[in-house]
Amino acid sequence: MNLVGHLNAFVAVAEELHFGRAAERLGMAQPPLSQRIQRLERELGVRLFDRSSRRVELTAAGRMLLEEARDILERVERVHTLAERARLGETGALRAGLPPDLGGAVVAALISAFRDRRPEVRLDLREIGTTGQAQALADGTLDVGVLRHPCDGRALAFGPMLAQRIGALLPADRPVDGPLHVADLAGDDLVTTPREEAPGPFDEMLAVCRRHGYDPPNVHEARNTQFALGLVLAGTAVALTPRVQAPGVTWHPLAGDPLNQRVSCAWRRDDDSPDIAAFTETATAVLCAEADMTPLSASSPTRRVVPRPAFGFLA
């Protein structure tokens, strides 16, 4: 017995509650449809429908089996989809790059949301800075990424631009009276992510600092968030970062919000994969919900972002 074909017939009759309409929906004559239902009932040993000359109704057994039948048909359809993807040379995996300073809770939320949306696609996440992501996208070793701006995007297409407010991370025992201005950091060393990971944002941040009266005597580059926090805790340096909540340090907004961090998804312009589109929509929603980023319109490039406490320099 062709179980899938018989279950498809059962679901069609159950949803239409009319053999004629179900047969038309399936593109077959009514007698063969009735035969399929009868054979399925014999195979299962239960009546699925109560039939009369005036109406068709599901029995208790039919109602019990309907959702299971739908689930089986959905799984069969998924198998066919995966087989077609394999035939076309697709691996069923999406290689996605994330910046090293993305918070753990955000990463977990992204994985969960994408799994719910594309359960048949394995998400292969890779921790890579913006420069490495741009190169990997260009050479085809990465399908999609989350990049910080500004960056070299000559061969890339971008999703919605998101912004995140930047403030100053200082030792908790450092007194701050009133609003904190960038110029108030004058004389402090700065700790930030390495320039090689995202040269554009690195240079832009220092340029904005200098315009506002802060030219750090020394810039310490830290790949590890804990190392950066250690420098701040020791009073060796300050950090300019999205909001961070950790023992011994305090995050302060900067008066006038002169700095923000801008990110977006990116992919090769010639790649219109639906999985990339799904990842972009998912990542954009997760970054807004979990990292309190805000869509940044072209008409308001310095729109204020109100973040939530979180660990990680991009959390």
UniProtKB/TrEMBL annotation:
MF terms in GO: DNA binding; DNA-binding transcription factor activity
CDD domains in UniProt: PBP2_LTTR_aromatics_like
UniProt xrefs under InterPro entries: LysR_HTH_N, LysR_subst-bd, WH-like_DNA-bd_sf, WH_DNA-bd_sf
Source superkingdom: Bacteria
Pfam family, one: LysR_substrate
Keywords (A to Z) from UniProt: DNA-binding, Transcription, Transcription regulation
Record carries keyword DNA-binding: yes
Cellular component GO terms, alphabetical: protein-DNA complex
Ranges of residues in domain HTH lysR-type: 1-59
Family label: Belongs to the LysR transcriptional regulatory family.
Protein name as catalogued: DNA-binding transcriptional LysR family regulator
Source species of the chain: Actinomadura namibiensis
